[in-house]
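Researcher: We plan to redesign the surface later, but first we want a full-length starting point. Tokens attached.
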């Protein structure tokens, strides 16, 4: 694994902070077909994910919640990343994201900007923050046909 260059570390930190300060898709989806919520009792992070489905694809995703910059930025980026994807594609994406954080695997190409969270793997206590919304997403998808 290559050692990250400082300018890329800074770029990724800024991307995470931008999503924290200006979250995308924060709010409710009145027509949500799927919904799940979760919390990390250790740190107090909370996330609710709502999904609108259309022909087996996630038409729209939204989140509500509170917590640290990592958990909230991860939820924001999740909602942008999963829109338009099938349930199977999203499950593979969630698995790749978790492998990157937990196992230290290189980021899969389909992760795109989610690669910004690769550095979180160096801080095991923060991995749960980044994974919270993805675990909640997987629970929501349990209701998908």
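Model: Full-length starting sequence:
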């Amino acid at each position: 694994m290559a050692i990250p260059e400082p300018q890329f570390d800074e770029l990724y930190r800024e991307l995470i902070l931008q999503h924290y300060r200006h979250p995308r898709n924060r709010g409710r989806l009145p027509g949500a077909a799927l919904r799940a919520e979760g919390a990390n009792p250790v740190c107090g992070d909370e996330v609710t994910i709502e999904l609108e489905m259309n022909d087996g694809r996630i038409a729209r995703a939204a989140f509500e919640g509170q917590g640290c910059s990592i958990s909230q930025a991860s939820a924001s980026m999740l909602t942008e990343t999963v829109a338009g994807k099938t349930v199977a594609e999203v499950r593979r994406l969630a698995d790749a994201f978790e492998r990157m954080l937990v196992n230290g695997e290189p980021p899969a190409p389909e992760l795109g900007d989610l690669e910004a969270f690769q550095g979180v793997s160096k801080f095991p206590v923060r991995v749960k923050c980044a994974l919270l919304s993805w675990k909640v997403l997987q629970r929501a998808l349990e209701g998908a046909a």
